[in-house]
């Protein structure tokens, strides 16, 4: 009774408005279907209902509310002013100030005192009940909960990583206090979790929606399924799809969109065999259409399997290496033809599987398909050109694993033929074709280098030079010269490599860090450590930032100190050891390989004869450098082997020639017990 009096008194002070279009509640009940989405939102806000959701959701929500309204709800006092609600910027059609008369005074939280709200003949026997009714009317706690929910929604909209999104979702569920989250909120959170493959967070969203009484829809379940697909958890994804079918979210017999979602899951899980089985089911259904794009997903699954195996440095089984060809055989059995994009994926899969024979066959099919289709769309890559580079790279990968001379000869011959074909295709001087030929030539020379066929790599260089001579392209760049130089160095032909270096100078081709590093490897092979030091000086003095020596340069130069020069009859091992320590002192970013190489220059390899005593003592200086670099005693065994450690321990027991720095390093690494150490002011060991 008190609540009704409160409402009557408040509505009595509502100012009369001259608004031409005011719809009564009864009119809204009769014609809810005629309301637009904007009008439905305004009507829901006017009645205090949530205004989020699709048009059908808002219309059903308004119908339910109006059906539960009291019989006198159609009076003018309770009419919905849609025009005012549409024009308002806040959540309600009227604010609190409009409900209060201009001369009203509010000394407390209510607009009117208790005496004004109670009729003269009303009896207030229960003040506590009346206060509870006032608290329920103003609903301050509900406003706080709404504010917390809106804050959580804003945080969820701004989240781009799974951590913030999970926190915002948990805050939203807590703020709603058991009420069901909006479908948009669940979808927004699941998009973040799907991209990040956060399966547990995605499953939590589905469980929260179920617990709140509003199960997630089809789109939300598909996003969760994509999260499992990206995380490569096929069994969990299968269980999730089965649960969706049990709940009726997914149809018992998959439709076209669901089949494609499952195919995408096969791509993420690298399951090309299961993709073929799903496609067979789709082909057997009359209500599902299958085209080349669907079969491409099976080819993508086979491609990803080969790429992942290559990244893990694992070998593919023969059946998996032939996966793309088995997929295309199944396609032809169903009357489908591979698209250029699918054929490019097959060539790329053969590339990472190291199967140049399959790559060449699929490249021929790809070139025929591109020629038949015509010019690619502007936003599509040139699949035929990318396929040529992929085949050359497959030759390079296969040559590394192949040991037979006949196979390597064939690989080198194919590489030269493909480079020549690329030169003829790029004869018009187009920039894009020029870049394509450079990639092909460099990759072909690299394949010849891996095949230990430097003469074939030289033929690739000659093809590029002849192309430039007839003004069909630019002169070969440093990167191609480096590839040929690397082929000569890999084959151990130092004389030919040095002759090619002279050609660098004659043709005006500049050196870069890769060029110097290849020459340093030649010096390391011959034990020319002094020449290696001169090359380092040249690299440091060169003004170009592309020629700066790196840790690999210093490590290779130090490696030259590990080999006794072939042209010298007498060589002092201690002098080479001190030279290696001097090079080490110039390297600011030495790593484990650098330190291990320097120690080898001092004490030799484990199977070498015992080192000279003076050379072994120099190794203590290397230990001092390791101590400064931050190596700990428990990490010394990760850098050196047991035999080298024993030689260092024998060298540390000899006090002769100790420097203070070397003695402290030997004691620090536990090579000797505490013993007499030279004074701190003693001059450090000169090297």
UniProtKB/TrEMBL annotation:
This protein's name: SAP domain-containing protein
Residues annotated as domain SAP: 32-66
Taxonomy, superkingdom: Eukaryota
Signal sequence coordinates: 1-21
PPR repeat start and end residues: 477-511, 512-546
Pfam families from the UniProt entry: PPR_2 (PF13041)
Keywords: Repeat, Signal
Matching InterPro entries: PPR_rpt (IPR002885), SAP_dom (IPR003034), SAP_dom_sf (IPR036361), TPR-like_helical_dom_sf (IPR011990)
Taxonomic source organism: Pelagomonas calceolata
SMART domains, alphabetized: SAP
